């Protein structure tokens, strides 16, 4: 069978099966586009119908989440957990609490997670969950009541050897704490059934920093492979959440100069670059006071806030999208290319649109897909599980060493897989191929289940 025709027919089949799930289709297409040479060489994957099996979550749980606000009003949200693939280990992946959450978004995120987790080299299956509940504007007690209600149903379906949720957009240590508390109450069992816990009751040091640090390590590896380094490189970043802020911190520590970043309201251009003092201010502004970046622009000389503007027109050597899916469009990629940008390293999941990716590749920029360069977060979640199993705590330095080693392995594995299948230097192809093969082979070993 011709693998190109098979892949095209397969994408048609996926689109017809769930016509409304557009972001999910985008994620599937991105993976399958890299797999033609793999399918050609390993017809067993076609015979075993691995693609048809791998796009279907093993199980999806959808449930009612009723909760009361501080005034006593009753609200109903929808809860989800997509238990995507357990060929390599228990389902593992974050929870997104945001009003844009629906089954389409969680299937895309869960699908990505399967390959990302495979890339980490750790024994992790893939899953994702969440709710259309928006944590923004809610009090702590409202968030607690919501999280408890959410777990009143979900506790039946998760567990230390089954499915281990963590955070994602709108779900941080506070939400993990409330969910863990209720899980423990209902099961009477103190186990590492969640990651992203606070370090004083089972969390791993460096988990909050891990995704952002990992992105910086991955960029460092990409440049090193070209005989270059981060030293003196100007960088721009998009989101100013956990991923963005800690990417800025590590990039700065590694000698780069972060000159632009943004939030929902606009972006900051700081030609002098961020430093330790400015980062401390930013962390307090974003994590503690939840204020606007406007304050940064007013406080630091030479920097200014650009209301309503994205960050991508700020000239840079490297760009790091770290906010959400489809945040970097074709026209943004064009601007980056015109400004001489040398690489785009994804910190969020699927931030570049397919058209933007084509343009980035045509312009011969380095490009790393999120499932490779943002895998540091879930990798340290895996290390949190290991520490919980052993009932030990590792130091920051120990976790950081593991993280660096894992990011280097992911980088090497991507390059080797891409070269092996005739696409040298293509990190996207390499990530998809390496991630896919490991899961596919395990599925074949385990039979039709
Ligand atoms: O997208 C991701 O990799 C995450 N939200 C983290 C998942 C995890 O289990 O730590």
Detailed description of the structure:
The protein has 449 residues and is an alpha/beta fold. The protein has 3 domains: 3-54, no CATH class; 59-190, Rossmann fold (3-Layer(aba) Sandwich); 210-373, Rossmann fold, CATH 3.40.50.720. It is 49% helix and 15% strand. It has 18 helices and 12 strands. It has helices at 3-17, 22-32, 36-41, 43-47, 50-54, 103-119, 140-154, 173-187, 207-225, 242-253, 276-288, 294-299, 330-338, 354-362, 370-373, 376-390, 396-420, 427-446, and strands at residues 59-68, 74-85, 91-97, 126-131, 163-167, 234-237, 257-262, 266-269, 304-307, 318-320, 343-345, 366-368. The strands form 2 sheets. A 7-stranded mixed β-sheet has the order 9-8-7-6-10-11-12, sandwiched between helices. Strands 1-2-4-3-5 form a 5-stranded mixed β-sheet, with helices on both faces. Helix 13 links the parallel strand 10 (318-320) and strand 11. Helix 6 packs across helix 18 (427-446). The mean pLDDT is 97. The structure holds (2Z)-2-iminopentanedioic acid. (2Z)-2-iminopentanedioic acid binds at residues 92-94, 116, 166, 168, 195, 349, 377-378, 381. (2Z)-2-iminopentanedioic acid is lined by residues 92-94, 116, 166, 168, 195, 349, 377-378, 381.
Summarize the structure.
The protein has helices at 3-17, 22-32, 36-41, 43-47, 50-54, 103-119, 140-154, 173-187, 207-225, 242-253, 276-288, 294-299, 330-338, 354-362, 370-373, 376-390, 396-420, 427-446, and strands spanning 59-68, 74-85, 91-97, 126-131, 163-167, 234-237, 257-262, 266-269, 304-307, 318-320, 343-345, 366-368. With 449 residues, it is an alpha/beta fold.
